[in-house]
Structure formats: structure tokens, C-alpha cells
Amino acid sequence: MKEWQKKHILGIKDLNKEELETVFTLANSFKEISERDVKKVPALRGKTIINLFFENSTRTRTSFELAAKRLSADVVNFSSSNSSLTKGETIIDTIKTLEAYHPNIMIVRLNASACLQSFINYTQASIINAGDGRNEHPTQALLDMFTVKEAKGSLENLNVLIVGDIGNSRVARSNIFGFQRYASKITVCGPPTFIPYEFNEMGVSVSYNLDDVIGQADVIIMLRIQSERQDDLFLPSLREYTDKFSLTPERLKKVKKDCLIMHPGPVNWDVEISSAIKNKIHPLILKQAENGLAVRMAVLYLIGTKKREI
């Protein structure tokens, strides 16, 4: 493989197919580390990584922290609620202050969209996007795709169905960019108010009827309704949404036997997915979380090490 060239990972949109495969190959090798008694390698010893989260997170933040520690990096966790941001300091001022400590990598999550590019002007550190507003969530898409590849052996020419709160979903956008690298057909499905016009220009199919498209899918990604980003004018009643777009036992009967059903978490049970089928669905969702650790180890290694050859 060619040497890794990217200093930052701001979005899947910026990665080509060869770069995606590089991440997957390395993630596969890092999975073995989690099975050891001593779950550490010295790959990033002496490197400093800052988890810079301006928005709440459990899975992403925890897995990035664990990934960094398993690579022997020094990790600093930043919480905006306990910072000078509460005293009026700007995010840019925060970046500049942290830059004074010469970190190697900043992992950034925030609720604003598509502004991480500007942060590059204020730090020499590499920046990894851990989710920015409605824009992208690249490592979530990487772990989703890695999970699919692990289960199916290939990402080529799949029918991928993404269901739910499409417009507010950075996960949807990153997965669209990623699966399209493999000539997969993407369908987004949800209420009309959940699917902005921009998706008609992204090379995807749009459906407003889950029952019409659910039986064709090789992969189904159910999205969380993001109430924190919702305008009540765009949200149907939960009962109406559940009736038309929830994965219920009845709808599960229409799904292909080898179809993978995924969710980025946390799941609103009995809204996006019926709790009656939790035992069937939840194991793969937990596998996504497990794979997320390996994928984020791979990303940190590629960004953080001077040795780029794989």
C-alpha cells in the first residue's frame, strides 16, 4: 500500500477508496490487541492527544480515549462545561490555548457544521473530526463500513438503506460518501420533512415509504431521532413516526435473511426499533461499538505515527 498522506481526517468525503481500505486493513490487525491480557502497544508513546468535545458523547469519546491509551499515547480529556468557555472564551481561543501545549492530535466534536477546516489555521496538531453538527462523522462511517465488510466480505455493489432523521444526521452523510466509493446503491427513507432537497443531489434514491424498500436492502442503518436538533414543525408525532418508520417484528419478516441491521446508537427503543426484536438486533449494534475501538486505533495510528508504511 502507498504511504498515508493525510494529516487530518475531517470527513469521508476527503478519503478515496484506497485510503478507506488502508484503515480497514489496519483496524483488522488492531482487533487482536483487545483480546490480549495486556491491551497496549507502544505505537504512539510520547504523543499527546486531546479529546476536545464541545458536545456530549459516550461511545465516540470513550472509544477514542481507549484507542489512544491502547496505543500508549498521553490523553487529555477536555469538557466544555468545565472550561473557560463558560466564562466567555471562544472556541478559537481555546484551540490557541491548547496549541501552546504542543499536542500531536486534537479530536474534535462540536454542534456547529463544517467549521473544522478553519481550526487548522490555529494549530499545528492534526485534527480528527469526531462529529460536527449536521456535516460528517467520519469514524462512525468507517466503523459501520468495517462491520459490514467483516460480515459480508465485501462492500461492493450493496443495497444500503438509511432510515430516519436523515437531514440532521452526520452519520448518514458520511456513510453515503463511504459506501458510494464501492459503487453501492444508497436509499434514504423517512418522512418528507426529514429529507432535505440536498440529498436528491447526492446520487441517492429517496423513499418516503419504508415498506416499499425494506425488502431490497443488504444493509439497513436505522438512525436516531435527534430531538436536540429537531424543530417541532418537522417532527411528526412519535406514534405516527413509529407506525411508518420503526423496525417492527412485522417489518423484520420482510427483510432479507442475510441483511445487516445497524444503528449508530444510542437506540430509542420502540421508536426507531421495536424492543420486541432487541435480542436479534442488539448484538450487531454492540459489534459496531467493538469495531469502533479498532477503527479509531487505526485512524490514530495513521495520523499520529511518523512511520506511514503499512
Short structural description:
The protein is α/β, with parallel strands linked by helices. Helix content is 35%, strand content 15%. It contains ten helices and nine strands.
Topology at a glance:
Elements: H1 17-30, E1 48-53, H2 59-70, E2 74-79, H3 91-99, E3 105-110, H4 116-119, E4 126-132, H5 138-152, E5 159-163, H6 170-180, E6 185-189, E7 205-207, H7 210-213, E8 219-222, H8 238-245, H9 249-252, E9 260-262, H10 278-304
Please provide a written account of the structure.
Helix 6 links the parallel strand 5 and strand 6. The protein is an alpha/beta fold. It has a 5-stranded parallel sheet. Strands 2-1-3-4 form a 4-stranded parallel sheet. It has 2 domains: 139 residues, 3-Layer(aba) Sandwich (Rossmann fold), CATH 3.40.50.1370; 152 residues, Aspartate/ornithine carbamoyltransferase (Rossmann fold). Helix 1 packs across helix 10. The model has no long low-confidence stretch (mean pLDDT 91). The chain contains 10 helices and 9 strands. The chain is globular and about 55 Å long.
